[in-house]
Amino acid sequence: MQTQIVIRNAELSNGLRTFAEEKLAEALSRFEQNVMTAVMRLEDITGPEKETGRDKLCSLHVKIRTGDIVIKQEHTDFRAAIDVALDRLKVQLGREIGRAKRGIAEG
User: Which domain holds residue 6?
Assistant: First the structure.
């Protein structure tokens, strides 16, 4: 499984990058056999010089054997955006992998 963290329009501390890496690894650990790649993008939508509310975006793009899962979560804080996005990802991964195991096609 390959993971990658991409940062755009934001200046993140090493602590926040480490937080993101650890949280992503933890969230995917249960699904390692099914996940091929995972990309987390962290972006400050309005740029680092402006604080305008929910302007921190955490996007997740995960490729599994049966397709792709894309999650986007905006929040006022990167840590909160990461936590909520990863919680949503774990639920979606559980659903998709469960469907595949039961042989249920999408649609």
Answer: 2-102
Average confidence (pLDDT) over 39-61: 85
Residue type for 59, please? S
- Residue 21 to residues 17, 51, 57, 65, Cα–Cα distance (Å): 6, 24, 16, 22
Both tokens of residue 59? 């996007």
Dist. CA 55–CA 75, nearest whole Å: 6
pLDDT of residue 55: 87
Tokens 């997740």 belong to 60
Answer yes or no: is 107 within a domain.
Answer: no
Q: How many domains does the chain have?
A: 1
Looking at residue 29, its amino acid is S
